[in-house]
Amino acid sequence: MNEQNELPPHVAAPSPTAPHGPSGLGGGVGVDRVPGLGHSGGGSTLLGYIGIDTIIEQMRKKTMKAGFDFNIMIVGHSGLGKSTLVNTLFKSQVSRWSSGWGSEHKIPKTVEIKAVSHVIEEGGVKMKLTVIDTPGFGDQINNENCWDPISKYINEQYEKFLKEEVNIARKKRIPDTRVHCCLYFISPTGHSLRQLDIEFMKHLSRVVNIIPVIAKSDTMTLDEKNEFKHRVRKELETHGIEYYPQNEFDDDMEDKNENDKIRETMPFAVVGSDKEFQVNGKRVLGRKTAWGVVEVENPNHCEFALLRDFLIRSHLQDLKEVTHNIHYETYRARRLNDNGGLSDVKVTCQFPLTL
């Protein structure tokens, strides 16, 4: 059988003057012999296509089979359109109101955590999306320490993951219920942040990725919106509140340049809507007013499209990695250092040990 006929078109045949075959391995690696393979008397010549570039395809197939987990928390007082915005983001009915919460359910007197999971499939890729809602946040007269239930929930998910991780016979794939992202909704007052906003982000920015958004931004003029965004950024900087993407997590200059543009835009001034209207012969998502239709996906009307691209198309995986490598590792290190180890974490074994 002619061995040269088996080569792909982009792999050159060995030259008669080059006894060791083509220089380069898999299209660019400068190795043409592997000692110890082939004949017992020495190295063998690699004449075929190695296929290193298929590693990415192998990883893609395994990842698609396993699917993705993404857990997003929405925080803000009632009436800011949190559920509507999340439905608009994922173009699905994923809010608590469309998942078993009827009109008879009243907003609780204290903060109650409500998590709803859905499996969304697009282009053969499955993602388990969990939306964690916080009804009751900021709705009381006395909101002192109202962020404690939220902080407790986030830490409980870290603890749950840690307990699974330290098991001797741990699961092949640990269920990930950790909060990867927290969308914090700011009221469109046009003045400044409330003290509650400052205290919440100051406490929670240490344990979760916070993305501040200005809700219902169509209630402000363009000048009011820009002034408010600038004022919010200054207040966050003054109080030392870090929000995602943090400067210290930029891996290289390319990431820094991209994230700098995002940081200059934040907080995103957004409008959410799950209703369609006819505009210039097209069906668009929007909010109808006496002056026309505010188009949700039109960048000239609001920054919803920027938030969606940032959250889903460009930084979703990075949100998961920062959660695991930074926030979870910080929690894990603190727990391991407390009292010399995980004294209250039960280490279990699913099979008998023999000596």
TrEMBL record:
Q: Where is it mainly found?
A: cytoplasm
Naming one, the record's GO cellular component terms include: cytoplasm
Residue segments, region Disordered: 1-34
**InterPro entries named among the record's database cross-references:** G_SEPTIN_dom, P-loop_NTPase, Septin, Septin3
Q: Name one GO molecular function term.
A: GTP binding
Q: Where does the UniProt annotation locate this protein?
A: Cytoplasm
What keywords is this UniProt entry annotated with? Cytoplasm, GTP-binding, Nucleotide-binding
Limits of the Septin-type G domain: 66-338
Superkingdom to which the source organism belongs:
Eukaryota
| Listed PANTHER family | SEPTIN
Family stated for the protein in its record: Belongs to the TRAFAC class TrmE-Era-EngA-EngB-Septin-like GTPase superfamily. Septin GTPase family.
Protein name as it appears in the record = Septin 3
